[in-house]
Design the sequence.
């Protein structure tokens, strides 16, 4: 019995010490991690709306408030997590950068930014987080990204037979689910612009 108590106390002490060490490491690194995430986001913003001098959160944007309208439009699997104005060097707003989380990925959530100019042109997308199948959905970076850039359409669709219109995106072979996740994510942003253009100015 004494041996069991001794072992239990030893295990308890090890657990407490390990927890304290992990807590200390987290406290020491959390600011660095947050700074790195902010830097990555800024790089993604600059990629999808180059030339901006600054990016400012859109006033009064509340993700929960747009949930119902997006659900009604058929985008229940997409979350607009953040919305920023791209402020140009002359002080004017050159466009908007959306941070989107799609719940429709094959391997889990896909997080990416979408840059849309004030004239409605999709400047591009930048992938922040993705964990799709290697060799298939992970090809989104090289196969899907270029297809959205510079397109001014009301919405996109995807095709498996070869895109013939600006509004069509060639699906990644063997990764239709991933393709659909990106198409719906971008369409969600275009829908938001269509619904709120007068507010965004």
Sequence:
């Amino acid at each position: 019995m004494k041996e069991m108590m001794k072992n239990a106390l030893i295990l308890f002490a090890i657990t407490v010490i390990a927890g304290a060490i992990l807590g200390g490491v987290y406290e020491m690194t959390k600011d660095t991690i947050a700074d790195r995430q902010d830097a990555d986001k800024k790089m993604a913003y600059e990629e999808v709306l180059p030339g901006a001098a600054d990016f400012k959160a859109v006033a009064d944007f509340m993700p929960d408030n747009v949930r119902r309208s997006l659900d009604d439009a058929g985008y229940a699997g997409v979350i607009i997590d953040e919305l920023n104005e791209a402020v140009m060097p002359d002080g004017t707003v050159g466009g908007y950068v959306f941070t989107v989380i799609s719940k429709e990925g094959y391997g889990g959530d896909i997080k990416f930014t979408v840059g849309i100019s004030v004239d409605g042109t999709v400047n591009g997308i930048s992938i922040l987080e993705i964990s799709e199948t290697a060799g298939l959905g992970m090809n989104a970076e090289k196969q899907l990204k270029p297809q959205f850039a510079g397109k001014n359409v009301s919405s996109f669709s995807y095709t498996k037979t070869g895109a013939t219109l600006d509004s069509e995106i060639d699906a990644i072979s063997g990764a239709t689910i991933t393709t659909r996740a990106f198409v719906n994510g971008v369409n969600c942003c275009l829908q938001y612009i269509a619904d709120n253009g007068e507010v965004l100015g």
Observations:
- The radius of gyration is 22 Å.
- The chain has one domain: 54-200.
